[in-house]
Structure formats: structure tokens, C-alpha cells
Amino acid sequence: MSQVLDAMFERKVKPQEHVIDQGDDGDNFYVVERGLYDIVVAKDNQSRCVGRYDNHGSFGELALMYNTPRAATIVATTEGALWGLDRVTFRRIILKNNAKKRKTYELFIESVPLLKSLEASERMKIVDVIGEKVYQDGERIISQGDKADCFYIVESGEVKILIKSKTMTSKEANQEVEIARCHRGQYFGELALVTNKPRAASAYAVGEVKCLVMDVQAFERLLGPCMDIMKRNITHYEEQLVAMFGSSMDLLDPGN
Ligand code: CMP
Ligand code: CMP
């Protein structure tokens, strides 16, 4: 950590400044301190904004990790500040850590049903981007109505999903009802990322829980091939809600 901190440098940016241009060689990795940044990907002669960093997150790791040209253009849309880490330091420190991560998570990631259809190299890229978070008994992992920025896979322990139904009246509406439990190898927190809506339910740790966490940018970049499975499962959520509340309106209009 101290070697990374020593090597980092600050870079101030102005609106419309290109921090990274797609196709260039990779020089630095960046962590956002503040500002908004669009992620623009050009494909088949068309440029599309595929996401944005909002005062949070990091980018520019792909070209450095896989020795490939920059995969997207990153444009500041406001004034901002970034912390950069040069390619040599990034590779020396982060890649060593990635090798450790691959050893630790490879077998588990192979066993996750959702990821079964991916190629081995695609699963490896997932291992490279995941982080691990630990939650204590009763701790809230996701709050219904919040803006969503990541996706979770349960590594150990149990997670319960609770929902406040907007279709119920008055005092019943404020009560959370348990609708599901997720165990090792199962995922949650995908719905808001797929539908671009606030979190549809809350998630709490039951006992100590370890989750693998992936940010929304990596989710969109790496889990495209699993999208059909996730979308099919949303139909299952709707059935669950209809069975419990007589309506699945909550999925279309979540909130507190
Ligand atoms: P790199 O290819 O080095 O430079 C552009 C960066 O944009 C890339 O690393 C990722 O960190 C980031 N990025 C975010 N979303 C995407 C995406 N959908 N496709 C490619 N790069 C992305
Ligand atoms: P998201 O809306 O991002 O955050 C809450 C998560 O709870 C949701 O994604 C799903 O992963 C999960 N969930 C499990 N069962 C349901 C259900 N019946 N309705 C909505 N969300 C559910």
C-alpha cells in the first residue's frame, strides 16, 4: 500500500479533456478523486457512451493488465481530480496481487452457476476485477430505493432479501417482508444494474457473510454473456412478488 501511495501522482482535469483515448497504448491507471467522466466506446464506426464515473471508481487498468490498446475513451465532463499510477508500478504491484487472487478465487468462480457459460479466460477476467467484502450479522448490504453501483456473489454465509411493498396500504407498507435467501455461489444486486432503476429490495447479512463485489462498469463489460440467465430470473422475481403481494409492480417502480 505504501509503495502504491508513494508512486501516485495527482492530475487535475478540465471539462471535455480526454484522460484516455481508445486505441492508445496504456501509460497510467487512474483513481477518481472527484468529477464526472464519460466512458465512450467506438465500435463499427459508432461511438457510444456506455457508462460514467461519478466522483468514484477507477479506470485504465485493462491496457496495463492485458497489454492491449485502450478499450475506451474517458472524457471528463466537469472539472475533476484524479490520482494516477504509472504502468511500471501498477504492473509490479497490482499484477502480483492479481496472481494471488487468481489462486484464491479461481475454483470458487468456476463453481458459480451463473458464470458456467463463460469461457475460462472470461472467468479469469472476473477474478481480476472482483473485490471481497465482509459483513457482520444483521448488517445491511443493500438498501431498497438506493442508487446501485455494484453486483454481489455470496462467497460464504447467508444473505436475506427483504422488500417493502408499495402495493400495500399504510402501516403494512412500511414493513419489510422476507422474499428470498442467497447462499454460497448465488448472486444478488443485479436487478437495479440491469433495469437501471433503484434497488428493488434490501439485503442483510445472516451471520458473518463474505461477498465478492463487482462494480457496475465491470458488470456491464464482463457479464453480457450471462444477461439472458439474469433476465430470465427477473421473471421468477416477478412471480414471487405476485405470489406474495398479488402484484409485481414493485419491480417497475421501486423506491422507499
Ligand atoms: P483501459 O482499456 O486501459 O482504458 C479505458 C478504460 O475504460 C478501461 O481500461 C476500463 O478501465 C474502462 N472501462 C469502463 N467500462 C468499459 C467498457 N465497457 N469497455 C472498455 N473499457 C471500459
Ligand atoms: P437489486 O434490485 O439490485 O437489489 C435488491 C436485490 O434483491 C435485487 O437486485 C435482486 O438481486 C434480489 N431479489 C431477490 N428476490 C427478489 C424479488 N422477488 N424481487 C426483487 N429483487 C429480488
From TrEMBL:
GO terms for molecular function: cAMP binding; cAMP-dependent protein kinase inhibitor activity; protein kinase A catalytic subunit binding. It comes from the Eukaryota. It is found in: Cell membrane; Cytoplasm. Pfam families: cNMP_binding. Transmembrane segments: none annotated. This is cAMP-dependent protein kinase type II-alpha regulatory subunit. 3',5'-cyclic AMP 1 binds at E61, R70. 3',5'-cyclic AMP 2 binds at E190, R199. SUPFAM superfamilies: cAMP-binding domain-like. Belongs to the cAMP-dependent kinase regulatory chain family. GO terms for cellular component: cAMP-dependent protein kinase complex; cytosol; plasma membrane. Keywords: cAMP, cAMP-binding, Cell membrane, Cytoplasm, Membrane, Nucleotide-binding, Phosphoprotein, Repeat. Regulatory subunit of the cAMP-dependent protein kinases involved in cAMP signaling in cells. Type II regulatory chains mediate membrane association by binding to anchoring proteins, including the MAP2 kinase. It comes from Otus sunia (Oriental scops-owl). InterPro entries: cAMP-dep_PK_reg_su-like, cAMP_dep_PK_reg_su, cNMP-bd_CS, cNMP-bd_dom, cNMP-bd_dom_sf, RmlC-like_jellyroll. Residues 1-111, 114-240 form the Cyclic nucleotide-binding domain.
